[in-house]
Amino acid sequence: MAKTRMLKHELRTSEKVASWPIEIRYFWTLLWGYVDDHGKGKDSPLLVKADCFPLDPGITADVVDGWLWHLVDAGVVLRYTVDDNNYLAVINWAEHQRPPHPTKDILPRFDAPGATLRELHASRMKDAGEVHASLTPVLGWVESGFGSVIVNESSPAVMESAFTEAYSHWPKKVERKAAYEKFKAATRQMPVADLVAHIIRFGDAYAATTAKQFTPALGVWLSHERWDDELPTAPVDAGKQTPTQRAHQTLSLATDLDTRELER
């Protein structure tokens, strides 16, 4: 039976999770759908792969095994053995999920009599470096503690994944389709990874400093190649603004509206 899981906002803002590569973050959330309503499951990389990535032949059970060890090393998953059977458990499961009508708790806990924690296999973590290209929006040659990969950044799946990651940071969610076309056009001028980094940097800055009505639509921002602009700063109270500041804010809004009207 299908399971419904929540993704709390805290997951998006967790510095710990943000330090992981994108593919590990994605796997972490998919794993919540694999485990039962008590955060436990059979520790079989083959079963986990079949459940989390049924349509991705490039992601093998060995890769999944390595990712699981990464999550163990990160302190969010336990892998343990009870009566010669291997199990895994999400640590602090109740902080992540609280199913309204949980199924019966039948799998043994990590602290059950006779349970032993499995020893961390650092060597297996290295085997997880070769990941599926469509899960890696940080494109090009990627160097990290999780391995090195080369991906095809012109792939439609990779391009869409990269844009989705960037767009999620842009506070003004309007005209996504137009923004995506401008995004693809802009990648002819710079590597996709660099463009994504610029969008995330500016999107986060706009979210922290600028009201949405004065934030340009992403498509407009891309059209004007504004990635070389100075980052937006905290706004001055309207009553304390100088005439020049008010004029600049009004001009920014008018330019946004005029550009969007021309692009219709």
Descriptive notes:
With 264 residues, the protein is of the alpha+beta class. The protein folds into two domains: 9-150, no CATH class; 156-262, no CATH class. Helix content is 45%, strand content 9%. It is built from twelve helices and six strands. A hairpin with a 2-residue loop joins strand 2 and strand 3 (85-90). Helix 4 packs across helix 5 (61-73). The longest helix has 20 residues, at 243-262. Mean pLDDT is 76; it is low at 127-153.
Low-confidence stretches: 127-153
Based on Cα principal axes, name the global outline.
Answer: elongated
Largest sheet: 4 strands, antiparallel
Structural class, by secondary structure, is alpha+beta
- Please give the radius of gyration in angstroms: 23 Å
Number of domains: 2
Percentage beta strand: 5-15%
Q: What's the N-to-C terminus distance? A: 45 Å
Mean pLDDT: 76
Order of helices and strands: HHHEHHEEHEHEEHHHHH
DSSP helical segment count: 12
Question: Count of DSSP E strands?
Answer: 6
Helix content: 40-55%
What's the arrangement of strands in the largest beta sheet? 1-3-2-4
Quick take:
The protein is α+β, with helices and mostly antiparallel strands. Helix content is 45%, strand content 9%. β5 and β6 (147-150) form a beta hairpin.
Key terms for this structure?
single chain, 264 residues, alpha+beta, 2 domains, four-stranded antiparallel sheet, two-stranded antiparallel sheet, 12 helices, elongated
Please specify the SSE layout and strand pairing.
Blueprint (H helix, E strand, L loop, with lengths): L8 H5 L1 H4 L3 H13 L5 E3 L2 H8 L8 H13 L3 E6 L2 E6 L2 H4 L19 E2 L4 H5 L14 E4 L2 E4 L5 H12 L8 H11 L5 H18 L8 H6 L19 H20 L2
Antiparallel strand pairs: 1-3, 2-3, 2-4, 5-6
Helix pairs in contact: 4-5, 8-9, 8-10
